[in-house]
Automatic annotation (TrEMBL):
InterPro entries: DUF2179, N-reg_PII/ATP_PRibTrfase_C, UPF0750_membrane, YitT. This is DUF2179 domain-containing protein. The chain crosses the membrane at residues 7-25, 56-73, 79-97, 109-130, 156-185. It comes from the Bacteria. GO terms for cellular component: plasma membrane. The keyword Cell membrane applies. It is a multi-pass membrane protein. It comes from Desulfosporosinus metallidurans. Signal peptide: none annotated. Keywords: Cell membrane, Membrane, Transmembrane, Transmembrane helix.
Length: 282
């Protein structure tokens, strides 16, 4: 057991380092050549680099020091430790990768697009192993704990202020394309974190037993019965709840049509599904 925990810890440390290196590569390879800014502490560091030529990595680390002090007192110590580790690697490679440009391009949109994609991929790796790259992540966690404000809302407000500063210093074009980067980053992060989209299905039918048999045989999925009662008829009914992957939704609809054409079915998006047959929750 101890050996397994130790291996997981070492694997997590290596995973965070890999994610941090990819993130640094994305900033220096696409964001900086396009003259784009960013959100959070990274956006401030980029502004200082463009105007005062202060190394991005060094300034990113310095600006995070007071946030670490805040986070150490208010947030989980393991999270802060992993964040410090990730930020050290990220800051070091930001300056080591200075001047790198994997693909020569002069299109700011491509810089915003691919910068956002790489940032989303790298952050998802770091988050998967329980760390972060500092900045607004720590501030947002503290605000959430103290005042109950969702992390997404506080991060959006902080990033909005920094984008407005970028607008004033670098101009509207850079600020607007920076928003493209942040949007792509968020979408890529959500996609990777949530996995392949799934659908949550609610079915109300007089043929519930037969329907569940078809679902288990045709799709290989389990289902759950909830006890319901018809508001008009006042008769008890079985309500079927099941979750299927996106490619399976067509087969499920066909099965429902064949067993009970009068069945009432609700299809909803399932943002994240953990458990057997989906993403492991271990």
């Amino acid at each position: 057991m101890k050996l397994t925990k130790r291996l997981r810890f070492i694997g997590g440390i290596i995973g965070i380092a890999v994610g941090a290196i990819i993130a640094a590569y994305g900033v220096q390879g696409f964001i900086v050549p396009s003259g784009l800014s960013g959100g959070g502490v990274g956006g401030i560091a980029l502004l200082l680099y463009y105007k005062l030529n202060i190394p991005i990595g060094l300034m990113t680390f310095v600006l995070n020091i007071p946030l670490f002090i805040l986070g150490w007192r208010e947030v989980n110590k393991h999270f802060v430790f992993k964040t410090i580790w990730g930020l050290v690697i990220f800051s070091a490679f930001l300056d080591l990768f200075k001047g790198i440009q994997p693909i020569a391009f002069d299109d700011i949109f491509l810089g915003a697009l691919y910068g956002g994609v790489i940032s989303g991929i790298s952050s998802s790796i770091v988050f998967h192993f329980g760390g972060s790259l500092g900045g607004t992540d720590i501030v947002s966690k503290v605000i959430q704990r103290k005042y109950g404000v969702p992390m997404g809302n506080s991060a959006l407000a902080i990033n909005g202020v920094i984008i407005m500063i970028s607008w004033a210093i670098l101009g509207s074009k850079v600020a607007l394309y920076t928003l493209v980067t942040l949007f792509v980053y968020g979408r890529v992060l959500d996609l990777i974190q949530s996995g392949v989209p799934s659908k949550s299905i609610t079915i109300i039918s007089d043929q519930s037993e037969a329907l569940v048999d078809r679902i288990m045989i045709d799709l290989g999925r389990g289902a759950t019965f909830l006890q319901g009662r018809g508001a008009y008829s006042n008769e008890p009914k079985n309500v079927i709840i099941c979750v299927v992957s996106l490619p399976e939704i067509g087969r499920l609809k066909q099965a429902v049509r064949e067993v009970d054409p009068l069945a009432f079915m609700i299809v909803q998006n399932a943002g994240e599904v953990l458990g057997r047959g989906f993403v492991s929750n271990e």
